[in-house]
Amino acid sequence: TLTTIWWMGTHAEQGLAIASRHLLGDDGEDELANYPPDAFTEEQRKNGAVILHVLGVIYMFAALAIICDEFFVPSLDVICSKMDLQDDVAGATFMAAGGSAPELATSFIGTFVSRSNVGFGTIVGSAVFNILFVIGTCAMVAPSAIELTWWPMARDSTFYAVSLAVLIACFNDKVIHWWEALILFLC
């Protein structure tokens, strides 16, 4: 696995301190040591306390569903009506941003709480899931055949390929400099 550490490097010839993130190979460190300790001991988890973890996850999913239904979707409706956006534009922008909120939260926790690389895999894996599974499921449950032109497929595939190429180029040296983070943010 890859572990992430903060590294403040100084470039003597420039006299500047530049924040970078190094992605290092497996250094033998226990990945679980990067996370806060569990509320239960291993013995308690073996004796059934893991059920409480499962119930906590179910509770969080239910809370997320309620928050989205009661607050997120109505607020998006208000924003879209105030901005006079069409439904397809609203869905492609605001709903996509809302759908990416879990990845953002996971990346934030992975970066600032556990100091691990869970964010990189989450973002790439989520994009693949959204492209393959979500679109495929929509096509399977559609009441009739969906006729598409070549343009949306070509556009989305091109932008996704360019985004992955930029991501690979930035991660090539296993160091993310501030200017690479800016490029990734802008892409």
Structure characterization notes:
The protein is mainly alpha-helical and 187 residues long. Helices cover 65% and strands 11% of the residues. It is built from six helices and three strands; from the N terminus they run ββαααααβα. It has a three-stranded antiparallel beta sheet. A hairpin with a 4-residue loop joins strand 1 and strand 2. Helix 3 runs antiparallel to helix 4 and helix 5 runs antiparallel to helix 6. It is globular and about 55 Å long. The protein starts with a strand and ends with a helix.
Low-confidence stretches: 1-18
Order of helices and strands: EEHHHHHEH
State the helical fraction: 55-70%
Structural class call reads mainly alpha
Helix count, per DSSP?
6
Strand content: 5-15%
| Average pLDDT taken over every residue | 75
The count of β-strands is 3
Rg, rounded, reads 21 Å
Distance, first to last CA: 27 Å
Largest sheet properties: 3 strands, antiparallel
Which strand order do you get reading across the main beta sheet? 1-2-3
Characterize the overall form.
globular
